TrEMBL record, chains A, B:
Transmembrane segments: none annotated. Residues 306-361 are annotated as: Disordered. Keywords: DNA-binding, Transcription, Transcription regulation. Residues 1-52 form the HTH lacI-type domain. This is Transcriptional regulator. It comes from the Bacteria. Pfam families: LacI, Peripla_BP_3. Residues 334-361 have a biased composition (Low complexity). Residues 322-332 have a biased composition (Polar residues). InterPro entries: HTH_LacI, LacI/GalR-like_sensor, Lambda_DNA-bd_dom_sf, Peripla_BP_I. GO terms for molecular function: DNA-binding transcription factor activity; transcription cis-regulatory region binding.
Length: 361, 361
DNA sequence: CTGAAAGCGCTAACAG
DNA sequence: CTGTTAGCGCTTTCAG
């Protein structure tokens, strides 16, 4: 190692300096740093990984989609990774990909990583294939910690959010609430169905059949055409905001006004939600917080193989009330059938605020 | 190497088998593969990288945002990477990050990569800092190929698209077109301003002052409140769809109907564009094609250091006409002042189609 | 077609 | 506080 020679020390000392190990005199440290600077030295990660058996990197499996939810989660993971000192290796699997999540994980294992993040996996029916082969910590975002002995989960709790959304509609006075769900292969979609069903059951309401979309506004639009035909439908909880927006458009075209005739609650709180017509009432998802906490726990598990995993904290439940929900029947009747959360004080058609009032539960 | 022992061959032969090198008898190849299978052997990438000096990975610098455009581009890159055999190492830089793109690149250099992709960089004023230090191929997406001797660019051409959008409005009969631009630190935003200005100048129209937003619907909304006050404004070209949607909302609240009083063209063609009110006329961006072609050229540059870089092809210019644009003045007058592109045949308020008619130029 | 030998640049374990 | 000695698991080079 040339830096060592230039600084007149041993290779090991250089190593110590670069790893911030103790027991290096200030003087030697300076000399080493200067020499490195002069030579434009940069330490070789491959060699480090080879010698130490650790790559200091985390593999990320993403679904190849620009959907707001998954994309936000990934961005959150990338942001959070910067603070952990781990590099990210990203591989991507798509719906319908024959290799699926298992193939993606396999390729991360080939690349060499110290831990794995799987974001919003879908149920492919053969997750078990991997369980035995993955002995490193695995963080599953937005799904149960299937797979692998050292699995962690974060970003669950969609069921509770779905329940809150449904109850908001119930408290407004709707007899029951229909659900426009995401594709049932997604765990995230299933959780929402469960929460919705739980709310209805708990309040003794009839549980209408689930309508299934594919997260897209187009599928929401198609579902909206169906639902518009049924005069009984006065409240719909949609599995995400995009579907809610397509749904609202279809309802409007069918002559059913939102929220006067039908109330709609979305899920995610996309940045556009306050600006569509009408501004959308929706459940805000704490993507950043979920990613950050999840990564913290993953890194802990990587660095403390023996220790117990850190406990997950419950994510906040945040209902943002805007203008797509109202009591049933034509007229808006202030003060009746309202939830504990206060509505935004401006009129229904006042300029959208970024937030809308929210209800932390 | 245990596989070698089990198969009764030398280490080198195993290496040959796994690298698909010629000169291995079918028999030996079989034995090696079987032995590897039995031992669950998986080749160590760190060792490979160390010995060969190549990491077979590409570094990606992203802006930490879930904005549709940048997110789609990244997804496109990830998808394209799967076919190249290169792994992806992603680091993320945020607006306002003091280290900026330079810091992100630096960290990729530390990690060791064979090439770099920088997606939609913003002008930070000190890009030059890196030029000298980066001797590997760099692909810049959505910006000029600044930085580094071996830089490539892809996904440019926004100026031409902006020009087409502006001309669509001019051909509809509008006297001039206002522009709601993205933040001018983004090269992508600047290109659109240029194209817009070029179109106006070429047609001898007055060039109104640029209104600058930050890509968000909120900023579009704010700009819309301003523009609504000016009765001269009959056509606006927005730098992206989110701003266009915020803008339309503000106009509507100010009593200016879209498209009857004001026409609006967006940029990106987000999946929601057909479902907002009114369905948005917009320029579709070919994110996937750009990412794929860019990556192909980058890999070519990595693997053929001496060869000339592959030439970039021009991306298609694709105007999707929906219902947010119309001739000026109240009534819609079919057949007058129209562009060569045919309008979608259904009425203005017919169910949104996924596409809308488009105009390839 | 196959093998032996020599590192790649670092860290780990142990001496000083 | 600092140095020595061995590898980590591959690819490369040169001989068979």
């Amino acid at each position: 190692m040339d830096v060592a020679r230039l600084a007149g020390v041993s290779q090991k000392t250089v190593s110590r300096v670069f790893n911030d190990e103790p027991y290096v005199s200030a003087d030697v440290r300076r000399r080493v740093l200067d020499a490195a600077e002069e030579l434009g030295y940069r330490r070789n990660n491959a060699a480090r990984a080879l010698a130490s058996g650790r790559t200091r990197s985390i593999g990320v499996v993403t679904l190849g989609t620009a959907l707001y939810g998954p994309a936000s989660l990934i961005m959150g993971v990338e942001r959070a990774a910067r603070d952990t000192g781990y590099a990210l290796r990203v591989v991507n699997t798509m719906e319908g990909d024959p290799a699926g999540v298992a193939g993606a994980v396999e390729s991360l294992l080939d690349q060499g990583v110290d831990g794995i993040v799987i974001s919003e996996p879908i149920d492919e029916g053969h997750e078990g294939d991997l369980s035995a082969r993955v002995d490193m910590p695995v963080l599953v975002l937005g799904a149960p910690p299937i797979l692998a002995p050292r699995a962690l989960a974060a970003g669950t709790g969609a069921d509770l959010m779905a329940r809150t959304a449904t109850e908001h509609l119930l408290e407004l006075g709707h007899a029951t609430v229909h659900h426009l769900a995401g594709p049932q292969r997604w765990y995230a979609a299933r959780d929402r169905v469960e929460g919705w069903r739980a709310a209805l059951t708990a309040h003794g309401r009839t549980v209408p059949p689930v309508v299934e979309g594919d997260w897209s506004a187009a599928s929401g639009y198609a579902a909206g055409r169906e639902l518009a035909r049924d005069g009984e439908v006065t409240a719909v909880f949609a599995g995400n905001d995009d579907m809610a927006i397509g749904l609202i458009r279809a309802l409007a075209e069918a002559g059913r006004r939102v929220p006067e005739d039908v109330s709609v609650v979305g899920f995610d709180d996309i940045p556009l939600a306050p600006y569509v017509t009408p501004p959308l009432t929706t459940m805000r998802q704490p993507f950043d917080a979920v990613a950050q906490e999840g990564l913290k726990r993953l890194v802990h598990a990587i660095e403390n193989p023996q220790a117990l995993p850190m406990p997950a904290s419950d994510p906040p439940v945040d209902l943002v009330i805007r203008s797509s929900t109202a009591p049933p029947s034509t007229r808006m009747t202030p003060g009746r059938g309202r939830s504990a959360a206060s509505r935004s004080s401006g009129g229904r058609h006042s300029p959208p605020r970024n937030g809308g009032s929210s209800h932390h539960g």
